[in-house]
Design brief:
Oligomer: single chain
Strand order of the largest sheet: 1-22-16-19-18-17-20-15-2
Order of helices and strands: EEEEEEEEHEEEEEEEEEEEHEEE
Largest sheet: 9 strands, antiparallel
Distance between the termini: 19 Å
Radius of gyration: 24 Å
């Protein structure tokens, strides 16, 4: 049995939280900002602070080859956490005066960025025992870079702040503090095109697809059920999509914002009769729909939603029959 999609909806859901990669930069389509927090031990605030440098381990570039990157550091003035801070949280959250900056070219061979921090800001952080910042890209840029976050297991890959100061004997000492918290938020537009569902990482845009025509005899055993969606190669895409895989999730909500999505799985690229598809095993979904759970459809999103700016264009329910999202089902009916 094959069931094709009966409706779908593109929707925006601001993402944040546990991000292994933090993005900063801008292109004609996007802007990404990163927040970092550091904590400090007790410190003799009469000591002379010579310099402060934040070091970032680069793990992502858009475009893939890199390019010119410029951003400023601004002290955060509002309380925040990576669990709740979103793009809409930005207004009035930071000091408009910059307290450091980076400007340079980041190529594919560059793995470490050094960002200088104003010593006045450092002194205020050391006195308070904690401090945080926002990285804001300069306008007119065409590059976004990503770096490993505080969630990396290896401390050497995490963002860290290196402070040089003078001790009691006027000797130069160093303090190194790894970031304790971080999050990136992004904003941008996606192309709107009839017949397509557009999935966008980072910002992020997801797609809900419904299969209301799906009907199986009561009590059957589902042997196989595969979701298939077809990409549109003509969609203006972000160059260098880094993770060519989608995520599919079971929907438990009837209405938006669709907070209850569970049983997530991967939707891998495959080639069938010379055409590219994304395919996922959703046997569990179909069996649940046919036994005890209402059919509220599925949610599609990018695999790199929390770490990239990847974009995918998929044919939707209004496309030609051969291109619509579909579920191919094999089942056994008992006597």
């Amino acid at each position: 049995v094959t069931a094709t999609a009966t409706s779908d909806t593109n929707y925006l859901t601001r993402v944040g939280g546990n991000q292994a990669t933090l993005l900063v930069g801008s292109t004609s389509d996007f802007e990404a900002r990163t927040l970092l927090r550091f904590s400090f031990p007790s410190f003799d605030t009469t000591s002379r602070i010579d310099s402060g440098v934040i070091k970032l381990r680069v793990s992502y570039r858009l475009p893939e080859g890199g390019g010119a990157v410029s951003f400023a550091i601004h002290a955060m003035t509002a309380s925040w956490s990576n669990a709740s801070f979103r793009w809409d949280s930005i207004p009035n959250s930071f000091d408009p005066a910059a307290s450091g900056s980076f400007s340079g070219s980041v190529s594919i061979g560059d793995t470490l960025l050094r960002v200088r921090v104003d010593t006045v800001l450092l002194r205020s952080w050391l006195k308070a025992g904690t401090g945080s910042l926002m990285m804001i890209p300069s306008s007119g840029q065409a590059t976004v870079i990503g770096f490993h976050s505080h969630l990396q297991v290896s401390a050497g890959l995490q963002p860290f702040l290196e402070i040089s100061f003078r001790g009691a004997a006027d000797t130069t000492l160093k303090m190194i503090r790894n970031a304790t918290e971080g999050v990136f938020v992004a904003n941008g537009s996606v192309p709107v095109q009839d017949g397509l569902t557009v999935l966008q990482s980072g910002v992020a845009y997801r797609g809900r697809v419904r299969f209301d025509s799906l009907a199986l005899p009561v009590g059957v055993s589902v042997a196989q059920a595969f979701l298939e969606v077809t990409p549109n190669p003509g969609l203006p895409s972000v160059p260098g999509a880094s993770r060519d895989t989608l995520t599919v999730s079971f929907v438990q909500d009837r209405a938006f914002p669709l907070d209850s999505i569970v049983l997530s799985g991967l939707c891998y690229p495959v080639t069938v009769n010379g055409s590219k598809l994304y395919r996922a095993n959703i046997k569990t979904y179909v069996q649940l729909w046919n036994t005890r759970e209402p059919n509220e459809g599925i949610v599609l999103r990018t695999l790199g939603e929390l770490s990239t700016l990847d974009r995918f264009g998929l044919y939707n329910f209004s496309a030609a029959d051969s291109l619509r999202p579909r579920i191919r089902i094999t089942y056994t009916q008992f006597p």
